[in-house]
Amino acid sequence: MVLDKHNKKSKINVADRDLKLMQLEEEIKKKKDFLLEKRVEIEKKEGLNQYLELVKKEYLDFYEEEVNKKKMELQAMTILNDYIHFLEDEKHLVNNELITAKHDKKEILNEINKIKKDLNKITKAKP
User: Fold this and answer.
1) Residue 24: which H helix or E strand, with range?
2) Cβ-Cβ contacts under 8 Å for 126 (sequence gap 6 or more)
Protein backbone atom coordinates (compact mmCIF):
# COMPACT_ATOMS: atom_id res chain seq x y z
CA MET A 1 0.00 0.00 0.00
CA VAL A 2 2.85 2.33 0.63
CA LEU A 3 3.92 1.76 -2.91
CA ASP A 4 0.44 2.55 -4.09
CA LYS A 5 0.44 5.87 -2.19
CA HIS A 6 3.81 6.82 -3.63
CA ASN A 7 2.62 5.85 -7.07
CA LYS A 8 -0.41 8.21 -6.76
CA LYS A 9 1.86 11.06 -5.70
CA SER A 10 4.04 10.42 -8.71
CA LYS A 11 1.04 10.42 -10.99
CA ILE A 12 -0.14 13.75 -9.55
CA ASN A 13 3.31 15.25 -9.94
CA VAL A 14 3.48 13.98 -13.50
CA ALA A 15 0.01 15.38 -14.20
CA ASP A 16 0.96 18.75 -12.72
CA ARG A 17 4.18 18.71 -14.65
CA ASP A 18 2.36 17.82 -17.89
CA LEU A 19 -0.15 20.60 -17.26
CA LYS A 20 2.65 23.10 -16.68
CA LEU A 21 4.44 21.90 -19.81
CA MET A 22 1.25 22.34 -21.82
CA GLN A 23 0.85 25.86 -20.42
CA LEU A 24 4.47 26.67 -21.25
CA GLU A 25 4.04 25.28 -24.75
CA GLU A 26 0.94 27.43 -25.18
CA GLU A 27 2.86 30.51 -23.98
CA ILE A 28 5.73 29.70 -26.34
CA LYS A 29 3.25 29.32 -29.22
CA LYS A 30 1.66 32.69 -28.34
CA LYS A 31 5.09 34.34 -28.23
CA LYS A 32 6.01 32.83 -31.61
CA ASP A 33 2.72 34.04 -33.08
CA PHE A 34 3.31 37.50 -31.60
CA LEU A 35 6.82 37.66 -33.03
CA LEU A 36 5.55 36.51 -36.41
CA GLU A 37 2.89 39.23 -36.39
CA LYS A 38 5.49 41.83 -35.43
CA ARG A 39 7.80 40.65 -38.20
CA VAL A 40 5.01 41.01 -40.74
CA GLU A 41 4.16 44.46 -39.34
CA ILE A 42 7.81 45.53 -39.52
CA GLU A 43 8.10 44.27 -43.08
CA LYS A 44 5.02 46.29 -44.05
CA LYS A 45 6.43 49.41 -42.40
CA GLU A 46 9.78 48.81 -44.02
CA GLY A 47 8.07 48.63 -47.40
CA LEU A 48 6.18 51.82 -46.62
CA ASN A 49 9.38 53.53 -45.54
CA GLN A 50 11.06 52.51 -48.79
CA TYR A 51 8.11 53.96 -50.67
CA LEU A 52 8.29 57.15 -48.63
CA GLU A 53 12.03 57.39 -49.24
CA LEU A 54 11.39 57.15 -52.98
CA VAL A 55 8.68 59.81 -52.79
CA LYS A 56 10.97 62.04 -50.72
CA LYS A 57 13.82 61.62 -53.22
CA GLU A 58 11.53 62.46 -56.12
CA TYR A 59 10.26 65.51 -54.25
CA LEU A 60 13.81 66.68 -53.51
CA ASP A 61 14.74 66.22 -57.16
CA PHE A 62 11.67 68.21 -58.21
CA TYR A 63 12.45 70.88 -55.61
CA GLU A 64 16.04 71.28 -56.80
CA GLU A 65 14.91 71.39 -60.41
CA GLU A 66 12.34 74.10 -59.65
CA VAL A 67 14.85 76.18 -57.70
CA ASN A 68 17.38 75.89 -60.53
CA LYS A 69 14.75 76.86 -63.13
CA LYS A 70 13.75 79.93 -61.13
CA LYS A 71 17.39 80.94 -60.66
CA MET A 72 18.00 80.59 -64.40
CA GLU A 73 14.86 82.62 -65.17
CA LEU A 74 15.98 85.29 -62.74
CA GLN A 75 19.44 85.37 -64.28
CA ALA A 76 18.00 85.66 -67.82
CA MET A 77 15.62 88.45 -66.84
CA THR A 78 18.41 90.29 -65.05
CA ILE A 79 20.58 90.09 -68.17
CA LEU A 80 17.71 91.47 -70.28
CA ASN A 81 17.11 94.25 -67.77
CA ASP A 82 20.80 95.15 -67.72
CA TYR A 83 20.90 95.19 -71.53
CA ILE A 84 17.89 97.51 -71.78
CA HIS A 85 19.45 99.73 -69.11
CA PHE A 86 22.67 99.80 -71.18
CA LEU A 87 20.74 100.77 -74.33
CA GLU A 88 18.93 103.55 -72.47
CA ASP A 89 22.14 104.95 -71.01
CA GLU A 90 24.11 104.79 -74.24
CA LYS A 91 21.37 106.55 -76.23
CA HIS A 92 21.33 103.78 -78.85
CA LEU A 93 17.58 104.07 -79.11
CA VAL A 94 15.36 106.57 -80.87
CA ASN A 95 12.16 107.87 -79.28
CA ASN A 96 9.84 105.00 -80.31
CA GLU A 97 12.44 102.40 -79.37
CA LEU A 98 13.07 104.17 -76.06
CA ILE A 99 9.36 104.10 -75.22
CA THR A 100 9.21 100.39 -76.12
CA ALA A 101 12.39 99.70 -74.13
CA LYS A 102 10.97 101.42 -71.05
CA HIS A 103 7.77 99.40 -71.38
CA ASP A 104 9.79 96.19 -71.82
CA LYS A 105 11.96 97.10 -68.87
CA LYS A 106 8.87 97.57 -66.70
CA GLU A 107 7.55 94.14 -67.76
CA ILE A 108 10.94 92.56 -67.13
CA LEU A 109 11.12 94.11 -63.64
CA ASN A 110 7.62 92.81 -62.91
CA GLU A 111 8.67 89.36 -64.10
CA ILE A 112 11.83 89.54 -61.96
CA ASN A 113 9.72 90.36 -58.91
CA LYS A 114 7.34 87.51 -59.73
CA ILE A 115 10.25 85.06 -60.10
CA LYS A 116 11.79 86.25 -56.83
CA LYS A 117 8.47 85.72 -55.05
CA ASP A 118 8.15 82.24 -56.57
CA LEU A 119 11.71 81.39 -55.62
CA ASN A 120 11.16 82.68 -52.10
CA LYS A 121 7.96 80.64 -51.81
CA ILE A 122 9.75 77.51 -53.02
CA THR A 123 12.74 77.95 -50.74
CA LYS A 124 10.53 78.65 -47.71
CA ALA A 125 8.87 75.28 -48.32
CA LYS A 126 12.30 73.66 -48.40
CA PRO A 127 12.12 70.04 -47.35
Assistant:
1) helix 2-89
2) 63
